[in-house]
Amino acid sequence: MEHQINTESTPQASTKIENRVASSSQYSIAKNRTRREIKPPKKYAEANLVAYALNVFKNKEGTPGVEEPRYKARLVAKGYSQILEADFTDVFSPVVKHSSIRALLGIVAMHDLELEQLDVKIVFLHGELEEDIYIQQPEGFTILEKEDYVCLLKKSLYGLKQSPRQWYKRFDSFMTSHDFKRSSFASCVYFKKNSDGSFVYLLLYVDDMLIVAKDKGEIRKVKAQLSEEFEMKDLGPAKKILGMEILRDRKTSKLYLSQKGYIEKVLCRFNIQSAKPSGRTEYGVIGYVDTDFARDLDRRRSLTCYVITIGGCAISWKATLQTIVVFSTTEAEYMAITEACKEAIWLKGLFSELNEDLQISTVFCDSQSAIFLTKDQMFHDRTKHIDVRYHFVHDIITRGDIVVSKISAHENPADIMTNSLPIIKFEHCFNLVGVHC
């Protein structure tokens, strides 16, 4: 990457040069002390160097009212040239689940909490590397009289396989050192209890953060701490996260999520132009279960579908093929109930950890025989082929942690994921889980 620099010695020219360099990927790398030029180690041949490339983004979408769209360039390492065990080991990096985001937004709506958003600039340049990685000097930025030198990366770089993991490890270490606790139920969910009994919550999805607190002063404190450690961009009140537009009506204690663009593409054939999962969060986890017996024509596996709501608002949902072949609709519904119970238990645990106690969860199913099977193991001889992990639902129900009840098929919103429905029934199912067309 080469910058053409005007040699005019005027204040205007100097400002142009400064702005151009400051907006370049090289400026970010230099500012974060990401690399250091050294003589190539003797044990490293040319083939041992990690190659680099320059990615130029013609236009990066800005944030309305905060940041204008802009051109952006980024120097990246060609991670595919890295060698396992030599240049990297572990690469997994957790991110917050969408259902965790919706759960926290439910708490925000219920208690009318403050909700603000931050973005980490050049996020992967903050990670600390644990391996020695060398790259060639970028073209156009070669050090004069040191053309045979290479760059030893002191911090992670975009494109390296371990960059996301190294960023997460550094951020997690920072948060725990500032008295935040990491949730044991959800990845990248942090919370801290203040002296007055209130809580501060933080969710992380790579470089996007949501901060929630009762008082804006507490949010400002967290922002200040983060800004001292990382280069941050304050986006103010949260307006959009992971493609979901956030809309609030604080007078009625409602919070809306809009995915208009995505939903218009997927549901345009149903003449639905937008859909907004919404609702006021109240106590109680309600689940709805349905199945489509032997839907998979190739392997004859059934479809498990469930929707979990809190206060009439859809928080989590799933539609997936079951892992084994079952012999009846009863067995298929039984396995679906188990999956829904697992999700309901997880959500209840997450809310409890975030200082929200929920009532006993209820899972509704339209199969009476499947409900009998969850409460009585008299059919055990017929279900020996079902994995042991599905039978734990019997113990959960016996302890009273979850109640499984009958519901008519007409009032079961999970039906929307298993059958082709007329428009009236389709809209009715949406209304049952707080989705308004």
From TrEMBL:
Which Pfam family is an annotated match for this chain, by its short name? RVT_2
Q: Where is the signal peptide?
A: none
Which InterPro entries does UniProt cross-reference here? DNA/RNA_pol_sf (IPR043502), RVT_2 (IPR013103)
Q: What SUPFAM superfamilies does the entry give?
A: DNA/RNA polymerases
- Domain named Reverse transcriptase Ty1/copia-type: which ranges? 56-277
PANTHER family given for it? GAG-POL-RELATED RETROTRANSPOSON
Q: What is this protein called?
A: Reverse transcriptase Ty1/copia-type domain-containing protein
The species this protein belongs to is Gossypium anomalum
